[in-house]
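Schema walkthrough. Field components (list of strings):
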Amino acid sequence: MKKRYVYMLLLPGMLFLLLFMIVPILLTIGSTFFQQGSFTLAGYLHFLTDSYFLKILWTTLRVSLVTTLVCILIGFPAAYYLSKLGPRKKGILLALAIFPLLTSSVVRSFSWMVILGKKGLINTLLVAIGLTDEPLDILYTPTAMMIGLVHLFLPLIIITLVGVMENIDPDLLKAAESLGASRFTAFRKVILPLSVPGLIIGSILVFVGSLTAYTTPALLGGKQRVISTFLYQNAMTLNDWYYASVVATIMIAITFIVIGVMNKLAMKLNPKG
Amino acid sequence: MQEKNRGLAVFTFLVFLFLLGPLVIISLTSFEPSTVLRFPPKGFSLRWYENILDVEMFLETFKTSIFVSVIGNLLALALGIPAAYALSRYQFKGKGFFNAVFLSPVLIPGIVLGFAMLKYVIVIYDLPIYAGLLVGHTVVMLPFIIRVIASSLANFDFAIEEAAYSLGSGKLATFFKVVLPNIRSGIIAAILIAFLESFNNVDISVFMTGPGVSTLPIQMLTYVENNFDPTIAALSVVLMIITAVLMFLIERLLGLSYFTKR
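Field assembly_structure (string):
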């Protein structure tokens, strides 16, 4: 009796997700293996031999990888600094990091269009100080996408790492130093390994987020496509739903592989086992 | 040692300059009196704020966005509160599985979910675009509603509920009179967080546009493609003010620790 009551509470939400998320996703994946009623892998073969698609895939992976690395390299020291501050200052800086995270991605990408454009702040400055005669093409390049994505995901990695670093017992650092470790060695041997779980979670969030982000590449990438904008183009501009479904399936597969591999890595690297 | 800390402080300052600078720049360019989007602006004018109201589509899509976010929110609450309650109150078979399914909408790439919904919810189920939009946003909000409410239920002492039962209060009455009031701040925070997720959503909405139906973020994307004047900058300022107010409320209700926990 009690058991059935629990499942009754879950049922409405489950049915809703089943009908509007799970079935559409599974059918989208399933539909890629059938053409004119018979089983086929033609869609996948087409993409794996299509140099245009492979180039898009490569751009996406490269941009996402660089974004993740830059986010970690910039975010880690900043998060460490924040975690050492008193509660008041830390609260203010955290709030300043969270605010952009909650701000519309359209607004944030648009702000980079204003900065990186031909008449934007960067080019105006470069021309003014005479570093270049002609404004540079920064907007609508993979570099612009990368800058926009770093801006989009940096807060995520900072707040994730602050959350993890806050929980590191400060006495551990003192103990290491009192045992003769230099400040840097203590940092390397104590803070760094204990931050690994946060680094991994943060990297998953940033990497997967960059791989699948739509707004930023759509606004800052121009004609330069990544898989998400390529999916949109196939679905809405070219009206080719079969290939759009294949791209969607490839995106799901990549996402789950990345999450799976990173989780495995997390389990291996986690000092607590 | 002092040296090193100062270096780190300067570095952190530069990081925050990178994070917030663009938002400041876009805010300042919104006051540009001419039609050129530039920084620094050459003068001060509020004409682009007036222009927001003159572009009829902005007002129309703003209404749609609000409607979808509010009604979708109510739907997600109706589906999510019972689920969050079951998941945090009881131990039962398959709990891990149900938990994973309810949080899965955040794992699936938004653009994939949007496309799959267009393909099946709109075309095969034959729902009107407006309904599809509503359903899509409900799916997007559900995991946030469940996560926030479940975590406030985790801090709720269910012995209070048992006490109410033993005093003769019924299950449903106890839930509404004892449990819900105790997690009120969690519920309000969940509503605000889900609202922001839905209001800013692009990935689902971009597939759910049709004659007369579109949301504000999608309308902004379309506008930027064709116009490069400071209207979007002005609109951005309005959206940032709304965001700041909601964020302040969320901080009051949950504290910033909600965001740092993973």
